[in-house]
Amino acid sequence: MTTSANIRNIAIIAHVDHGKTTLVDQLFKQSGTLSASAAGEERMMDNLELEKERGITIAAKNCSVKWAGTKINILDTPGHADLGGEVERALMMVDGAVLLVDSAEGPLPQTRFVLGKALSRSLPLIVVVNKIDRKDSRPKEVLDAVYDLFIDLGANEDQLDFPVIYAIGRDGLASRSLEQRGTDLSPLFSLIVEHIPPPAPLVSIEEPDSFRMVVLDLGYSNYLGRLAVGKVLTGSAKSSDRLVCLSMNGSVAPIKSAKLQVYEGLSMVDINEAPNGEIVIVGGAEAVTIGDTIAAAGTTTPLPRVTIDEPTIAMRFSANDSPFSGRDGKFVQPQRI
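Predicted structure:
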């Protein structure tokens, strides 16, 4: 059975095209999480059409791999400032992060944005200098630039003492030194288990043994309806437990036909019990919204609601009241646009 001690929740941070999704592919393959047929696919985490077309990560997504008895939940975060809400909610579910940097290009603006969010949450970090096989590779200079970026973003002494991995993510190779080329990704797996702490329960709250999680993401299933995703922050949950939703207005609503799932590889699987620190999916929570607390029946104290950056731009859509309204265009009705 999975316990809090053998769980690691990590985010992977990188600028576009620095090899983040390719590295995750290799983590899947080398952990033995996927079947032989599925392991032949590429960019498995980019499952949206636009992501596959552009080769970028738009929506934060969850998956997991297992290594030496430890379950590693991986959140593949977007790297864009205009998707800040996705980034912040993802970082609230993890206990550490892997910063992936191209050995030729070094840290770029999108790296800076997400790294700043991770440092502000005091997350321990592992730096991976990727693509060291490039002809224009300059790993030592890039590592110096990473140190400068950490200092510029106000990292403390503990955060500056980050471990470094040198990798060729496309080939699934990693090592802890430039002098010795790696043979697989085991140095990275081992470092994640050693350096990223297991999740710790919240203790500065009433009823610390009662199951509670904050909803940080939403999904949908044709069979279960709305899915609420979050990290177990207090207590543990069982599939047979009666659950309630504590909403922003103070109301307490029962969750009907609740189903408990976790990530296994790229899929969601049913479980009987979720320990503290596990990232879980609760199905059947129709009225839940992001920021609500899902808890065991009888729980009265909600967890603090999530706060994210305000949007940088706002748009208002309304009927066209121009004098030329309706005189041009094939589809002019709001419901057709």
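Summary: The chain has a mean pLDDT of 82.
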